[in-house]
Amino acid sequence: DTGVSQDPRHKITKRGQNVTFRCDPISEHNRLYWYRQTLGQGPEFLTYFQNEAQLEKSRLLSDRFSAERPKGSFSTLEIQRTEQGDSAMYLCASSVYMETQYFGPGTRLLVL
Amino acid sequence: GQQVMQIPQYQHVQEGEDFTTYCNSSTTLSNIQWYKQRPGGHPVFLIQLVKSGEVKKQKRLTFQFGEAKKNSSLHITATQTTDVGTYFCAGNRGGSYIPTFGRGTSLIVHP
Question: How do strand A107-111 and strand A10-13 relate by DSSP bridges?
Answer without folding.
Answer: parallel
